């Protein structure tokens, strides 16, 4: 494999993915793959959950209720149309939905062109899953696709548990510590962020839950929702306005400045934050809230699928830390092909 063309290895963080990937690669190289065998192997690889990183440290969720699940079919993948020359190699990556407590994902179909040499999945620390696809020797003026259809079952979230016993975490697991640090456009150590965080002093009567709610209300009261170009949490604070990304970033930054883990949740066309508190036994619980839009604190009335959770991702194909895991493509060809990434709703119940 040409390392200059393929910056990241075809690997996975989960042994079961590795086994499935090895089997699939062997089939791809040595013998034809039937649609049934490919779909079975693909399901094993694609439906493993990044949430497994989280589940190992999370107790059975008794503070939230998941209501009225709704099923949707989403097609995700990449389409390539070669130009006037052969495409010797095409390497593409794209994020795909995965399992979370409020969301289950199942692969129900896949369309892999004959020029797809191999594909694999990769979990990224922080809450994202990617598919990596390699196509080879695509003839001139020829289409080559790698498309997956997911059945996403998403539930509304309602808070039902006790909150008075929840506390700010004193000790975090390694994979949770990134939700206290800096990330692109979010700097909890900036002087202006720390100043606001210090001004939002808790009273002796306030619980940690009420302290987070105080941050939430402050952001919504002081930053007007207004669509525009992306900017940092500090810039939104200075301007007094921003869209869902800026309001979410500011809430996350203020939480982190007060040592409360928080992260961004990405759905199609929107994002919102989650924050973490521990119960009396030290078990972590993540709670959503809607920074922009209808007031929703500790609950979420949203059916769009979760694309990823987090805001600090180390992606092998990128030199810098990424706020959001985007699509990527690198091509070895004389003439540049037309590459289209697909993420579209095909059906819903």
Automatic annotation (TrEMBL):
**Species per Swiss-Prot/TrEMBL record:** Rosistilla ulvae
User: InterPro entries, from UniProt?
Assistant: Papain-like_cys_pep_sf, Transglutaminase-like
As given in the record, the signal peptide range reads none
Domain Transglutaminase-like per the UniProt entry, residue ranges: 196-278
Q: What is this protein called?
A: Transglutaminase-like superfamily protein
């Amino acid at each position: 494999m040409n390392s200059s063309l393929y910056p990241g290895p075809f690997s996975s963080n989960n042994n079961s993915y590795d086994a499935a990937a090895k089997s699939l690669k062997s089939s791809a190289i040595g013998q034809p793959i039937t649609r049934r065998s490919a779909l079975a192997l693909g399901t094993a690889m694609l439906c493993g959950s990044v949430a497994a990183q989280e589940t190992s440290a999370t107790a059975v969720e008794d503070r939230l209720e998941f209501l009225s699940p709704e099923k949707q079919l989403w097609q995700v993948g990449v389409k390539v149309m070669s130009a006037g020359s052969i495409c010797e190699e095409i390497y593409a990556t794209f994020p795909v939905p995965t399992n979370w407590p409020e969301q289950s994902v199942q692969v129900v179909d896949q369309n892999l062109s004959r020029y797809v040499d191999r594909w694999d999945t990769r979990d990224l620390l922080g809450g994202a899953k990617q598919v990596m696809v390699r196509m080879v020797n695509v003839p001139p003026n020829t289409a080559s696709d790698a498309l997956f259809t997911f059945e996403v079952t998403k539930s509304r979230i309602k808070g039902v548990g006790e909150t008075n016993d929840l506390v700010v975490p004193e000790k975090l697991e390694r994979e949770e510590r990134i939700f206290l640090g800096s990330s692109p456009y979010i700097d909890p150590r900036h002087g202006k962020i720390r100043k606001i965080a210090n001004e939002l002093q808790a009273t002796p009567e306030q619980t940690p839950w009420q302290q987070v709610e105080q941050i939430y209300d402050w952001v919504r009261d002081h930053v007007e929702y207004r669509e525009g170009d992306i900017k940092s949490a500090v810039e939104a604070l200075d301007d007094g306005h921003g869209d869902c990304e800026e309001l979410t970033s500011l809430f996350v930054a203020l939480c982190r400045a007060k040592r409360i883990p928080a992260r961004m949740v990405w759905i199609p066309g929107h994002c919102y934050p989650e924050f973490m508190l521990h119960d009396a036994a030290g078990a972590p619980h993540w709670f959503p809230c809607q920074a922009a839009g209808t007031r929703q604190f500790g609950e979420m009335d949203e059916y769009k699928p979760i694309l990823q959770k987090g805001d600090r991702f180390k992606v092998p194909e990128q030199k810098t830390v990424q706020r959001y895991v985007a699509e990527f493509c690198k091509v070895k060809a004389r003439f540049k092909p037309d590459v289209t990434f697909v993420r579209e709703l095909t059906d819903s119940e």
